[in-house]
Fold:
Amino acid sequence: MGKVLVRLEGVSYSYDGVKALEDISLTIHCGEVVSILGPNGAGKTTLLKCLLKILKPHGAIYIDGREINTYRVKELARIIGYVPQIHHSVFAYRVLDFVLMGRAPYHSMFSLPSESEYDKAMEILEELGIRNLADRTVAEVSGGQLQLVLIARALIQEAKILLLDEPTAHLDVSNELRVLSIVYRLVHSRVVDTAIMAMHNPLTASMFSDRIVLMKNNRVVAEGSPREVLTRENLYKAYGVDFEIIVKDGRVIAIPCRTNTIYPIE
Structure:
């Protein structure tokens, strides 16, 4: 197992007295894709915000061996690249210029990207298969293309860690598989050291994760490999729904069972 990149020790957070995270302890290593899996309201996005230092929880978080509160904002931005669930740009930025915003942690307020940074941005767009979008505006690209543009912006930060909040929430099946395949490849070819994704779907999480952290009611209910975590018992505990579990070619396939029961929306 690789070097420890992220460690959480007894992390808890509350919004106005309402628990959002409770006693979370995790260790995430170099070279693995980790999916934080669970239903709505489980605490997945709150956990990512704590790792981004947007929220200040109780407990301790260590990033690359240092306590998170010892990092300045720009320092942390050179280590962690963030891909949000939804992005709405007020301005019609050109894709290339939008990607280059990822270089902000390396610049002063009034400095401009260098020619080498422009070249690097084009290389990253090429690697992600979206070089042809460079001169379009972010308003003109599809949902799947925009997710790849956001990943490109994170990569040009030269981040060791990618955090992705529901990266496929609004994508069709082909774009969902393409985005997750690229994230998996980026980690396993060591372009980035690790990716941590907040996910809803047990099936896609099992396909593109080395490790799964299953959450329910702001706590971790199971953690380990997809085969260890995605059991009928664990999934019922998390979702309150029965799943059929199939193992094919070493891969876990978790299929929700059809039912006539109307489940309340949480």
Observations:
- The mean pLDDT is 89.
- The domain at 1-79+161-178+185-227 is CATH 3.40.50.300 (Rossmann fold).
- DSSP finds nine helices and twelve strands in the chain.
